[in-house]
Amino acid sequence: MDAFFLQILNGLDKGSAYALIALGLTLIFGTLGVVNFAHGALFMLGAFCAVTLQRLLSLSFETIDETKTDFLGNPLKVKTPYVEGWFGPEIGGSIIDWAVPLSILIAIPFMIGVGYVMERGLIKHFYKRPHADQILVTFGLAIVLQEVIKYFFGANPIQTPPPDALLGVVNIGAPLGLELAYPIWRMVYFLFAVGIIGGVFSFLQFTTFGMVVRAGMADRETVGLLGIDIDRRFTFMFGLAAGVAGLAGVMYGPINPPNYHMGMDFLVLSFVVVVVGGMGSLPGAVLAGFMLGILESFASTTWATTTIPGINQIIIYLVAIIVLLTRPRGLMGRKGVMED
Q: Lower CB count within 10 Å: N or C terminus of the chain?
């Protein structure tokens, strides 16, 4: 029983990343009708926001410490981070320690800005073009962003540790009498993902802006005839989708050290999630993300890989085939989406 619940937790952990990326993809497709193959690169950029802030906070200056000497008796040069010099060792050390969560403050405006520039500078010219053209241009953009990150940060994964207070494991099964020792940061990531998903759905459901956007997703021309600048609102939604992907990447860094190709690693799987959930369906994207994450977790167990070698590598695609054969529009797909 303990192992069963542990695999559920592992699946929710991976499913959180799938759901967040798929949610952003569906926001873009549902509002603008664009198949954005650069969305995985936005996830990667978010992760490197955390890397960048961590490096900035680690910038240091050298001082001579007369109390410490080398083997020749010469005073040692000590490197002190500027942050510690400005705020003191205790506060400065805490700021450095919490670099990953603090990078959210940088990632939000940066990723929304990147999304705005992408939409205004490139994507808007492909609204009326075939989906194949959209895929080619956004995939090319993803490769460019990937190579830029590789040039500045190198090809090797970069460690972005979580705060010391969130290291280690916690027995979350104690109230039920179970032994479920699970990493604290993975639980934080799951709760963070639930909060972001809940925030996006609440924004669309309960705000006037969100209601107009939903109306525009259903009938763009009619909303435009009412005198509403729906294009501007859809541009904002592109920035919001980029922000969601970026935040997913920021918080995923301590789980999987960022590298230049991490966006591509998640991209294909995230599109499978979107298709399984139903093109244009936000609830479907979230449901499929968590469902496929859990299935992948169980398929990665020793029993599963021993019984059917390689099942962990293909389980998501097998499920996608079964779902599309039985429900061609996906689990919660809307009629008419990509059927013209």
A: C
**What is the rounded distance in angstroms from the CA atom of residue 201 to the CA atom of residue 183?**
28
Residue 135's pLDDT band (cuts 50, 70, 90): confident
Does the structure show a pLDDT above 80 at 80? yes
Mean pLDDT of the chain: 86
Cα Rg for the chain, rounded, in angstroms?
23
CA distance 111 to 155: 22
Are 320 and 275 within 8 A, CB to CB?
A: yes
Helix axes 2-32, 230-252, angle to 10 degrees: 150
265, 157 Cβ separation under 8 angstroms: no
Q: What are 101's two structure tokens? A: 């969560």
Distance of CA 240 to the CA centre of its chain: 13
Residue 220, Cβ density class (10 Å: 0-12 exposed, 13-18 middle, ≥19 buried) = middle
Q: Which two tokens stand for residue 17?
A: 């990343």
The identity of residue 134, as a single letter, is Q
CA 269 to chain centre: 13
Q: What percent of the chain has pLDDT over 70?
A: 94
pTM: 0.88
Decide if 101 contacts 163 (C-beta within 8 A): yes
Token pair belonging to 323: 């779902």
> pLDDT per residue over 292-327, tens digit each?
889 988 888 888 888 888 888 888 889 889 988 888
Q: Are 205 and 212 in contact (CB under 8 A)?
A: no
C-alpha 338/C-alpha 336 separation (Å) is 6
Give the pLDDT of residue 271.
83
Helices (H), the chain: 2-32, 39-57, 82-87, 89-97, 99-121, 131-153, 184-206, 208-218, 220-225, 230-252, 262-277, 282-299, 302-307, 311-326
Q: Which domains does the chain have, with CATH numbers?
A: 2-57+99-326 (1.10.3470)
